[in-house]
Design brief:
With 277 residues, the protein is of the alpha/beta class. It has one domain (5-276): UDP-N-acetylmuramoyl-L-alanine:D-glutamate ligase (3-Layer(aba) Sandwich). It contains nine helices and eleven strands.
């Protein structure tokens, strides 16, 4: 049996069910050893909480990299999420070149925007730096907002397939080898995932749930990574991740006033069945 190691780099939001507090349990639940590199530590995430604390860990990264290099450590996949600063992107490029095993995957979730707007900590300089990371990745997993910022295409809430394909093509033109574009719906009551791999566009449609939850993008990306390193194809992994995220959102709706995240924990046991079913 192959000993698979995944490294994920993103922040720790101590409360809020996102980033590393989502990625670590979800990828681990896929039967995969999950190594972590915190990009920042926040008291909570930035959506809805006030006066949150933020500690940038950029200055710690070089020493961590050097230690790993001295120990000869490498990974079957590296997955980046919310990064604490534009400076960290340069470090991620170096990491991808030096720490991923032959045949391994570099998966980038840009994690900087939603609903057509940048997250509070980011600006267009960060977006421009993120383009450099997309240029060296194997798979980029953005939502439509992030994809539009990266490609310089106007964000729309109503669109057709030709518009979405132009966005996907824009990501490929940046250098991404494959694309998984989330939150794409062509008809009322449904949303879905567009994938692009080896010149082929595919679409998976699932029901649209009205109760929006912060952190579902992290849940999706983490489940996707876990499925990919377990041998699922890009499209099949995108389906697993979508179905699991829907389960988490439905579970969250059972709780009163659980506004800050998605209750993925009660349905986590179902993830292996989705991967192996």
């Amino acid at each position: 049996m192959k000993d698979i190691k995944v490294l994920t780099i993103q922040d720790i939001s101590c409360v809020g069910q996102c980033s590393l507090t989502v990625a670590l349990p979800i990828i681990s639940a896929c039967g995969v050893e999950t190594c972590v590199l915190p990009s920042a530590v926040l008291s909570t995430h930035t959506a809805g909480f006030k006066n949150f604390t933020f500690r940038d860990l950029t200055s710690d990264i070089p020493a961590i990299f050097n230690h790993w290099k001295n120990e000869g450590l490498s990974f079957d996949a590296v997955y980046t999420g919310y990064l604490g600063s534009a400076e960290q992107i340069e470090y991620m490029i170096t990491l991808a070149k030096n720490s991923i095993k032959d045949g391994g995957k570099f998966i980038v979730d840009p994690a900087f925007a939603d609903n057509g707007k940048l997250y509070p900590a980011f600006d267009l300089n960060y977006v421009n730096e993120m383009k450099r990371l997309v240029a060296v990745c194997d798979v980029v997993v953005p939502n439509l907002s992030e994809a539009c910022f990266l490609c310089g295409i106007e964000y729309k809430t109503e669109y057709d397939e030709s518009y979405v394909k132009s966005v996907v093509d824009g990501l490929v033109s940046l250098g991404a080898k494959s694309v998984v574009l989330t939150g794409i719906g062509y008809e009322k009551g449904y949303t879905g995932i567009v994938t692009f791999e080896n010149g082929v566009y595919s679409y998976y449609k699932h029901e649209f749930l009205p109760n929006s939850c912060h952190g579902t993008g992290d849940i999706y990306a983490s489940a996707f990574v876990g499925a990919v390193v377990n041998g699922k194809s890009l499209y099949d992994a995108s389906v697993v991740a979508a179905d699991f995220t829907v389960l988490a959102i439905k579970e969250t709706a059972k709780y009163d006033n659980h506004w800050y995240g998605a209750k993925f924990e009660p349905v986590l046991y179902k993830l292996n069945s989705l991967i192996n079913g």
